[in-house]
Amino acid sequence: MATERFPSFGLATPPAPRAIDAEDGIALLKGGQAKPGSLLAYGNGRSYGDSCQNEAGTVIDMRPLNRIRAFNAETGLLEADAGVLLSDIIAHAAPHGFFPAVVPGTQFVSLGGAIANDVHGKNHHRRGTFGCHVETLTLLRSDGKIRRCSATDNARLFRATIGGLGLTGLILSASIRLMRVHSLDIVETATPFRDLGEFFGLAEAADRANEYAVAWIDQLAGGRNSGRGLLFTGNHAEHGSHAASRAGGNLSVPVQPPFNVLNRPFLTAFNAAYRWKKGRSAAPRQVGYQGFFFPLDGVRDWNRLYGPKGLFQQQSVVPEETAREAVPALLAAARRAGQGSFLTVLKRFGSIRSPALLSFPRPGYTLTLDFPNRGVATLALLRELDRITIEAGGAVNPYKDARMGADIFASSFPEWQRLEALRDPAFMSSFWARTAKKLDMRRGTVEAAE
After folding, report:
1. Which of 11, 129, 227, 319 could bridge across to 364 with cysteines, CB 3.0–4.6 Å?
2. How far apart, in whole angstroms, are the C-alpha atoms of residue 235 and residue 211?
3. Handedness of CA 101, 103, 108, 109 (dihedral sign)
4. Where does the sequence pass through the membrane (predicted)?
5. Is residue 25 domain-resident?
């Protein structure tokens, strides 16, 4: 354990300085010996920023807690330990005709992490967030007590733990309800659009007609090609595979190169090839679920391609009424800064409310951009993207973040104090320390002055 690294996926923040096994963390909590701000659960390290880090304390490695405890093949109700990966859940449930109702862009997130971040997928308009499908969870707090939480039992803690960034205690296990599907395969349709105006004209109808919808944007295209891309829609195929394929791919990045491989010439060529390959036919085609939901999982450790300084990701959501001005402004800001985004995704959020106290998705459009860490220049661009987002009435995603200011967080989540009131005193993250705790200290200073 002492030699193992516990990084965030963006690799732009230092790895956790100290870690203990889940068993030791549980013993510490049950014994009531955890010091204030000393702990944080670490799932599988797929958060891009420092919401999975505790620079001043210790992370608890939850991966050994990886049992699927029970599964009802009639109802789709599954109970599992918090360290179980979504890939394990898919493999277990798929032969019975079930699939998670919500999956993010990677299957290598832990169950506890999916709950703590209230992750979303390509079907928010139909299914809401991951938290909408959590029935119960068990939570161990630093008073040594294990609480069963649901919409009716310990309801305040239940709502705070979903989307609570791991700050309400240690999630030990959870029961989630999966959805029945005809097969794992997806019937995918790729529709090219010339610009963002055409995309916005297609998006709402695409959501009404399909289980899944997401757009890829050619972020580097400017001038009359600005905002062009491909809208992907999908539905589970009536006839297809019920067998989960082997997790991960044969390709990998075994070592970290000394520089960023994903530079502008590479991205320009990649975008042209991707647009040609994916957009050359408008006919529906049946594809495997891994390629549709988790395309980057096929290359292990692909984040290493950004080089030793890692990457920053910025995901914003803006309301429907401001999206047609804000989304082009976000893309234009990145082009003016001369920064290329390898992963540029645009999708529409629906109106299904999460049970979470704090949840990133809300009605509107969400844009995801990622950039190699070039230091001051990249941080300046990210601040500009934050400004555009907040002025449009939007929010910035905390579990994709590694540097947003406290004021941006407060504007994104004005009810953050409700989570702080329910936070377990032993739990803290580097993200919460640099945002909410700064706000809390500032508020205390003002109150003292008054």
Report:
1. 319
2. 5
3. negative
4. none
5. no
10 in a domain, yes or no?
no
Which of 348, 74, 62 is closest to 202 using CA atoms? 348
DSSP for 168-212, please give it: SSEEEEEEEE-EE-S-S-EEEEEEEESSHHHHHHHHHHHHHH-SE
For residue 370, the enclosing domain spans 186-409
Residue with tokens 């295209």: 221
- Tell me the CATH number at 281: 3.30.70.2520
Mean pLDDT within 356-365: 97
pTM of the model: 0.95
3-state secondary structure 289-346: HHHHHCHHHHEECHHHHHCCCCEEEEEEEECHHHHHHHHHHHHHHHHHCCCCCCCCEE
Query: Does the residue 327 lie in any domain?
Result: yes
pLDDT in tens, 64-90: 999 999 999 999 999 999 999 999 999
Q: What is the pLDDT of residue 450?
A: 46
Q: Is the pLDDT of residue 422 over 80?
A: yes
Structural domain contains residue 221: yes
